[in-house]
Design brief:
With 83 residues, the protein is α+β, with helices and mostly antiparallel strands. The protein has 4 helices and 2 strands. 51% of the residues lie in helices and 12% in strands. The longest helix is centred in the first third of the chain and has 14 residues.
Length: 83
């Protein structure tokens, strides 16, 4: 858990200088698919999700699944995929 907290502090430090309209770092220890497409948009009234693509090929995505694909196809709000 300490490694996760250290990584989150590093991310927060990196992005602290970037101006956003309304930013908030949210950590979640459950299924990211479920949290991103269902719980977080409803609880926080999110209207846009930024998510990154892994760059995996079709075969790899079929074997491991893709959180990005799942969120894009199921989220109740707009999703912007960044490579």
């Amino acid at each position: 858990m300490e490694a996760v907290e250290a990584a989150l502090k590093l991310l927060e430090k990196e992005f602290s200088g970037i101006e956003y309209y309304n930013k908030q770092m949210i950590t979640c220890v459950e299924s990211p698919k479920k949290a991103l497409y269902f719980e977080l948009p409803e609880v926080y009234k999110i209207d846009l999700i930024y998510i990154s693509a892994t760059g995996k090929g079709r075969l790899e995505r079929m074997l491991v699944g893709s959180t990005t694909d799942y969120v894009v196809n199921n989220a109740p709000c707009d999703v912007m995929v960044v490579r």
